[in-house]
Amino acid sequence: MKWILLVFGSVCLLDVVEDSFVHGKRNARTVTFSRTGRGQSRRRRDTWTTEKERFTECNTPLSVKDRELLRSHTHETGFHGDDGSSFTLTWAGNGTGIIFVLSTISVPSDSFYEGGSSRLYRSEDYGKSFHDISHAINNTFLNSYFGISAGHGNPQPVILTANLPFTKDPGGKIFTSMDAGLTFRSVQLQFHPAQAIQFSLLDPKYLVVISIDDGLWLSEDFGNNWSKVHEGVHTFTWGSENTLFFSSSPNGTVEAARRGELILRRTCDFGKTFDTIAENIFSFGHIGSFLFTSVMEKLGSPRVIYVSKDQGDHFKRAQLPSATTEQFYSVLDADEDMIFMHVDNPGEDTYYGTVYASDEQGILYSKSLERHLFGGEGKSDFTNITSLRGVYLTNILEEGGCIRSVISFNRGGRWRYLKKPENVDCPDMSKKCNLHIHGEHSHFSGVTPMTPSSEPTAIGLVIGHGSVGDSISAARPDVYVSRDGGYTWWGTLRGPHHYSILDSGGLIVAVEARRDRGISSIKFSTDEGQCWKTFNFTDHPFFLAGLASEPSSSTMNISIFGYRLDDNHKPMWVAVTIDFEHLLTRECNDQDYVTWLAHSNYSSNPKTDGCLLGYKETFRRLKTLSACRNGRGYVVSRQQSPCICTSEDFMCDYGFYWHENSSACLPQPDFLNQTQDFCLNVDLQTTGYRRIPGDKCKGSFSPPRNEEAHQKLCGNVTSSDSHTEIPPAILALIVVCSLGIICLVIIAAYMITSRRINCGQRSPEYNFSVLQIQEDDLSVNNESTPNGKLNGFQVQEDSDDDLLE
Questions:
Q1: pTM (2 d.p.)
Q2: Where is composition skewed (Polar residues) in this entry (predicted)?
Q3: Separation CA 193–CA 166 (nearest Å)
């Protein structure tokens, strides 16, 4: 087994996989396109099965005036003479229009450091033109994996990392720029970086990186001077403020990560002083407001997870179902209030498990979804729909082997199947006709070119590939769109497409994904995907590599990257950038917007209609038929009003679950009488329900207390506030017997101690600042852990590197 820690922005993945390399979510500011080889794409054929068309795509003609207008604002760049096998795009800031493109050529691994080459291009007009600036860095070969790092702030900081042969050069080289790449300063390093240089979250002049010899290096002056602050470092991550967490091996220790002997340290003054906050760990991760550690509490026991919400001052053990060494945990999503944790099902290669949702402290977990699909390659379809609060989308693997999509509108409290789109026909033999959406698993397998997409400023808008029927189909996927956060859907495009949401949802663009021939046209919609217009952007088709747009959805520029044969019959990279701002010239006014109540079903009690997690949200959103421009200055307008508490504001508590044939939370059979230590030490006073984390409802409503359910969960545990009356005679007898037993225990203890000084048995501990090995009976069989080099990380073989991003 190999454990891998993937951390990208705010999410970290705790997972166990058979392969040592796992693709993660890309950085929002960076995207990489690759050529498959000379002529290879032309010979490749689409291999999807075909079926009867279930809906008709709505297309409207593009006027001659609009066609000419778009053509005059379409810019094509051919990168002549560039034989790079991959293009990496990085945006510098938001709204700056500055893009860096790093082209690198693949070479045999035995000559990687000697024969590699790269070119660096820069655009300052959103990709309408590119200029080769390789000469500004003396044509230095840049690292193809982490050659460009762009920070935040104004002016925009940029760092380029050279790829020098570490066998010949004692140190590496970087190029720094504080003017978004207009000028660069060369800096010779004392070390070779093993990953991308990371900027401080508060001040970009503070930098940190791990070297190839596991040293932790920090700079306080934007890379001009560096100091080595620690050795033997495995992983680091920024916490809140300027807090830096890192794990390291004890001096002289070999393979400490594999044996669970790492030390977790914290520095708040950039390496001048350190605090040891945990010992004997396998790995760690920082997600939202949660800090995780993975530890083996006693020799030979499964790993368990401890969680801290105060930056490592105190840790508590996460209360999750036990897992054997064949199982794993994966943090699917996390924020300031809660965590979604996938727990693998027992057995080898089951490809499914159970999703648990945590409380606000990240300690107690309740069952949210059973039979959750989790591919053997470490891919999950769990998706946060960012365009509407509280919505999550994923897939389940049913007992018959079929994959079906489910959606939750209240942060995992309840899940339901997706509704069939109104304009789509069901298959003739379908018995359970629903919409099913492809996720990361299908994207990784090459079934779809993209995963579902949503943007926080495009309220309610969701677009993704899927199929209609009993389950996800192996047929050629189509594109579906929702404008209300997933409650209802619409069949919008036939066949697979690359797509992008622009102008805060006022514009959607799409390009057909063809493997067997070149593309020359783009589709766009100004009515949230109801109908489309087609524009032919080139007379010379090319093979599509992908779409690229600024990370912010407010842009109206889209770049289409691909390649075709040049005049010498050699592959040539091509970029076409289309500026739609000149098509939608009218700024939206008040008449173009409508008031919309989110999560409304239009039929319930007006007092509770639209209530979700304790309050209603009313948005001002663009009318479907308003063809105007939101613009870069667009800000989402919303009004919130509180709701009274109802049963919808509660989810099942730790040890309980929603039964499909019941509206009540019932005790989990596998938890009965197995949580005695937990009930004694955590003071669990449960009714079987708890308020959903982040819920802000008002009022004194609470679900009916189920004393019998609590008794079943905790057995006959006697709490400290019990006042059961005991007859005096019985009480006296108990006292006498107790004194006798105490005397015998003292004598026995003295005799045992004379033979064995330290038994090492310790009681469970749930609150401590220095995490150490604990010998107790509460070991959660977690083969989950985090370790490996963060954000650029080097995978550690057979280590537990996996606690979410």
A1: 0.81
A2: 782-796
A3: 10
